[in-house]
Specification:
Mean pLDDT: 91
Oligomer: single chain
Shape: globular
Low-confidence stretches: none
Distance between the termini: 35 Å
Length: 230
């Protein structure tokens, strides 16, 4: 029987400021929540992963870890270091080792600074470091790629129409994903606002059971309007 081989996934978490979630954060330090988020998202797809742990913001160390990951896995996912800060070296490393960068930013919120590259039929996704940006870009870019490699036919059947119970702000030019509580009442789905949508607020996402999608040509939407949710 012919079957699809499950891709091997490697995780690289960047940031000298990161500490284990069981440690008490000192000044300038934050807990490494992204590694646990990625592990959970991958497990939801019944996939296995190799975690290479936290990598400090040192270019030479990052390059060696990226090389190792590309040799060991079919898909590499990094967290952080993909923006334009002084210590964001992921794109530089990808260029230096000869990957083909397909794009390095997308018109969405949260999750604009996401980079996708190919190296000898291996896929590299450099995802943002902020928690909601990371999870959103995984769901929108990495998950479909994994499912495609496993032979799954990709459809848009995850999306359905929801009625807004609140106003939601958005700017034209970027597709906006907003985490909400979706409830079904008398056959109709309603979306309820639950908290701050700042990209570093993981707590809001823990209270959500879905999201609404505001198209890039739409702008602010109001209570009573109908949008797509998932």
């Amino acid at each position: 029987v012919k079957v699809y081989k499950s891709p091997v996934i490697a995780l690289i978490i960047t940031g000298s400021e990161l500490i284990d979630i069981n440690s008490e954060p000192q000044k300038g330090k934050i807990r490494n929540s992204n590694e646990y988020s990625l592990k959970a998202l991958i497990k939801n797809l019944d996939m296995e992963y190799i975690s290479l742990g936290i990598t400090s913001d040192k270019k030479s160390l990052l390059k060696e870890k990226v090389k190792y990951a590309l040799k060991s896995a079919d898909i590499v996912i990094s967290s952080g270091g993909a923006s334009v800060g002084d210590y964001d070296f992921v794109k530089e490393v990808l260029t230096e080792i000869g990957t083909e960068i397909k794009f390095d930013k997308v018109a969405i919120k949260p999750g604009k600074p996401v980079t996708f590259a190919i190296y000898k039929n291996k896929l590299f996704f450099a995802l943002p470091g902020n928690p909601s940006s990371l999870i959103t870009t995984f769901q929108e870019f990495v998950k479909p790629a994994i499912e495609k490699m496993m032979g799954k036919v990709i459809t848009d059947n995850e999306e359905f129409q929801v009625v807004l119970t609140d106003d939601f702000k958005a700017q034209k030019g970027r597709r906006k994903y907003i985490y909400v509580q979706i409830k079904k009442e008398k056959g109709t789905y309603y979306a309820y606002k639950i908290g701050s949508q700042c990209s570093n607020h993981l707590k809001t996402m823990s209270q959500a059971n879905g999201m609404i999608i505001i198209p890039e040509d739409c702008g602010t939407v109001h209570a009573g309007e109908v949008v797509n949710g998932k």
